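Researcher: Excuse me, tokens okay?
***
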Amino acid sequence: MPLAACAKIIQYVPATCKVVPGGVGRIFMADATLWDFTQASPVSGVTQPYTALTDLGTSTNIYSIQFTRMRAKYGYKMKNTDGVTPSYTHALEFDVPDINMLTAQWSLLADAQGYCCGILLFIVLNSGRILIMGEGSVNGDPIDVPFYTYQDGSSADSGAKMDDANTNKVIITGMYNRPLIEYTGGLASLLALLP
């Protein structure tokens, strides 16, 4: 009697043999309660990317985060201690220069947004991929398991000498039951939403 596969398995082969640059090139931030993503149903059991973005508010903006060049990175750590309940701890880290009142205000507002409505992040990798972190609505419905994102572990360092960096390291994190979903609607669709 032949065995049937209990889960869909796909092969991973890069589409082309090319250099894939690392790092994050752009970061956009928004209120997670004000945006909905369009996603096709799984094809043969395989999750599909987000293809479009819909404003649930009235002329809602997304906001660009201007970080120190070449000082932003995204990563996750997967944990599955019992073999059946995977969790992914996602983290976006970026540096912003100059410890000042504006960075204090931004940090306090990011704390409030993380607690009250969730931080939605559009992470544009230098490879051209756009990852979505903290989404709350897909295809017009709230996602089944809330994806809470918040600031945790951020720090600041003035440096000790004149030529040391005066920097705030911001960390926005969240735990979810899967890797991030890619958005294929294009960078231009996000740039059009900036104030």
Notes: The first helix runs from residue 101 to 116. The CA atoms of residues 61 and 193 lie 5 Å apart.
